[in-house]
Each structure stands twice: as C-alpha cells, then as structure tokens.
C-alpha cells in the first residue's frame, strides 16, 4: 500500500499550492511545452502544460482537481513511459519518500528530454534554522535525518544541477513542514500536523512533550519574546531548495 494512502486523506485541506512558490517552479521549468509531474500528489504546482501526473497513492489521485492532467498510478523508480516523453519532468517534495533514489532519478533522466526540476530541502540547514525542530521537536528532526536526501547526492545523480533557495512566505498557503514558521499556534492543530509527513511519521507520542512545551511558551509569551526577530520577517530561508538540471 502506498504510504500516502494512509498519510494523504486530508492533504488537500492543508496543502494548497502557494502562488509565490508556483511562480518560482514555473520559471524553473522554462519554456518546456510538455511537463510530467512525478510524485504528483494532488497536483500542486502543475503548470497548464502538464501532460501527465505519476503518483502511487490512489487517495492522492482522487483529490486532484477536476480538469487536471491525467494521472497514472505508478512510482518514480519504474516510470511507465517511453524515453524522452516530455520536455521537462518535475518532482516536488517527493524524493525523500522514494525507496530507491538512484533508480528514480535515472528514470527522470530517461524520460525528460531537456530539463528536470526537483524541490527538496537541505536537512542540515533545516534542523539548524527552523526553531520548531531545533527547540521543541528534535525527534522530528531525527526522523528527517534518516530520510532527507543530501543535496550533493541529488545533484550528483542528476549529473549536475543549479540550486535555488526557496524562501517560505510568512503566510504560505502550502502547509508543508516549515510553512507556519511565523504562525506557531498552527503546529498545535492535529490536522496541520497530519498534512506534514515529518510529524505524521514521527508519531504523536514522540511529539507530545515538545508540543506541550510549545503550548506553554505560547501561553506565557516566552515564544514571542524569544523569537521576536522572526516576527519582523516576511520570508525565511530554512533550507528548501529547487534543483534545476538540464539533461
Ligand atoms: C509531500 S507529497 C508531495 C506531492 C506534490 N508533489 C506536492 O508538491 O504537493 C509526496 C508525494 O510523493 C508520493 N510518493 C511516495 N513514494 C513515491 C515514489 N516511490 N514514487 C513517486 N511518488 C512517490 C506520495 O504518494 C505523495 O503523493
């Protein structure tokens, strides 16, 4: 069973594509006339020139908006597609879930005629800069240490790639891990946590002490005093990276 058949039931509620990140992804795709989205989930960030979505979870496919590109139930490691099937292939916030990263990237390179765009994060930067995992939920950081894909490894598998930081806006509409960096109360909402695999897979028991400490710090004003520098920022770089490779 695909892992997002368990994790993904409420994905569409908390994970709406953010327009500023969409603009950056679409710019990275350049003038590609055809795009395939691998690990497509519910279809976030798909440009209008998307010809196919590849996604292993039927629960995620079922949440794709009406009128989206067709979707096939398959994994990155075995793409049911011919060589050079589209100008560009994108894979957003998905490579950390793949069971065989090298096989998946080889498949992207086989299927992309010109460009590959991958959104992921640098775990060393993330665990150091994101206050939630640094100060409250180290168990979640430890879980991500075990699955995050080192950027250098990814770039090497791609045969070289440009890297762009993806800054997270303070009002980001896509509720991924650090999306609520300036809205700390959101992390106390179980539905928000359910839409973030780092928390869903770490498990509520392990998170409970850190969430209790965050609850206290928000109630006493300690969090706001301690993080006052953050409150003046509109965007933050906590390690999300776009890798752009020409094949
Ligand atoms: C965090 S979601 C991201 C979805 C979408 N790309 C987005 O940005 O909203 C990760 C997705 O990767 C998919 N996935 C997991 N393992 C995969 C694999 N081996 N090949 C392709 N996709 C996979 C999951 O089913 C899930 O839909």
Automatic annotation (TrEMBL):
Residues 38-114 form the Methyltransferase type domain. One of its GO terms (molecular function) is S-adenosylmethionine-dependent methyltransferase activity. The keyword Transferase applies. It comes from the Bacteria. It holds the Pfam family Methyltransf_11. Gene3D superfamilies: Vaccinia Virus protein VP39. One of its GO terms (biological process) is methylation. Keywords: Methyltransferase, Transferase. This is SAM-dependent methyltransferase. It comes from Streptomyces populi. The lineage of its organism: Bacteria, Bacillati, Actinomycetota, Actinomycetes, Kitasatosporales.
């Amino acid at each position: 069973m695909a892992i997002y058949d368990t994790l993904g039931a409420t994905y569409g509620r908390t994970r709406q594509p953010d327009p500023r990140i969409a603009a950056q992804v679409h710019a990275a795709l350049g003038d590609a006339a055809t795009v395939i989205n691998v690990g497509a989930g519910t279809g976030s960030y798909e440009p209008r020139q998307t010809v196919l979505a590849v996604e292993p979870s039927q629960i995620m496919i079922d949440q794709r908006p009406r009128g989206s590109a067709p979707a096939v139930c398959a994994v990155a490691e075995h793409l049911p597609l011919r060589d050079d099937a589209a100008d560009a292939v994108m894979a957003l916030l998905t490579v950390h879930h793949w069971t065989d990263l090298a096989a998946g990237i080889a498949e992207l390179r086989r299927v992309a005629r010109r460009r590959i765009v991958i959104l992921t994060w640098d775990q060393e930067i993330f665990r150091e800069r994101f206050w939630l995992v640094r100060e409250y939920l180290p168990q979640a950081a430890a879980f991500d240490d075990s699955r995050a894909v080192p950027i250098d490894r990814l770039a090497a598998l791609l045969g070289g790639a440009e890297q762009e930081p993806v800054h997270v806006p303070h009002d980001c509409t896509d509720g991924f891990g650090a999306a609520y960096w300036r809205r700390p109360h959101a992390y106390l909402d179980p539905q928000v946590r359910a839409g973030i695999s780092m928390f869903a897979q770490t498990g509520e028991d392990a998170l409970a002490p850190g969430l209790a400490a965050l609850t206290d710090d928000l109630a006493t004003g300690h969090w706001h005093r301690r993080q006052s520098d953050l409150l003046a920022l509109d965007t933050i770089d906590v390690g999300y990276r776009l890798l752009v490779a020409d094949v």
